[in-house]
Amino acid sequence: MTSLKSDADGGTVGVIERSLPYAQAKEQVRILVEGLLQRACLKQPPFVPEGIAYLQGVRHIVLEPLGRIDGCLLPGNDGLTIILNKERPPVRRNFSCAHEIVHTFFLDKSHNVAFRCEVGQPDSDCEERLCDYGANEIILPTRYVTEVLKRHRVSMSLVTKARGWFNASYQPVAIKFTELSEEPVALVCWEWGDRNGAGLPKLRVSWRALSRPLREQHIFIPRHAPAPPNSGVCQAYSLGHAIGRMEEIQLGSLRGTFFVESKRFDYPGGRYVLSLIFLDRTVAC
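^ thats the sequence. predicted structure below, dont judge the formating
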């Protein structure tokens, strides 16, 4: 168990109003996280959640076996306690700790959930999405990632290095750097499977992320689209090492011949490939 010195004023616990629309609540979370990082004087990665937990009235961080649960936030007489699943990898526990810290933004004085979404959105789902967003902002602050991108261009090499810098998982690092990039670049995750129970199992698009220029162009990449059998994506999946080459891409409205970097990542029980598709490059960065 880690015991923390509690902030005297309780930080910014329960400051997001019940009636706040989701988009405004998301921006409020970003502002609050940025303020916490500044108050904790965290200026360089890795941005360790334990370094700001005390500012939110968290007195203890405990590791326990929690089964399928990643973490939880519990009130106590002397403050809040975060319990993390000791069976999860350190990087995942890091994110879970940040997630639970963001939950403190939504506590009322009796430590009940204080956030309510607009009509049509389940309260718990809204809060969970906001806490995931806030946790990502704690570990991968937008302001800092933007500064990194002023010095480096997005690449698989940068994603690999940044994972170590920020002590974060590959996927959120790749997504963050892609979405904040000013270059026209798409990130595609490929996994083996069928098409919602139909069609033959193939290497297919699982999810995708776009940089700002491509979002402004309303580029569309469909989920479940298959990778061509002889593509670098399939080679990376089979061989296990990074592949970078010019390839013909036919994915929704993203069509043409582009430079593509693909790399396989393994995890217990499976594997996936991340591909960066660059619309203005012909060689690796």
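Residues 20 and 123 are 12 Å apart (CA to CA).
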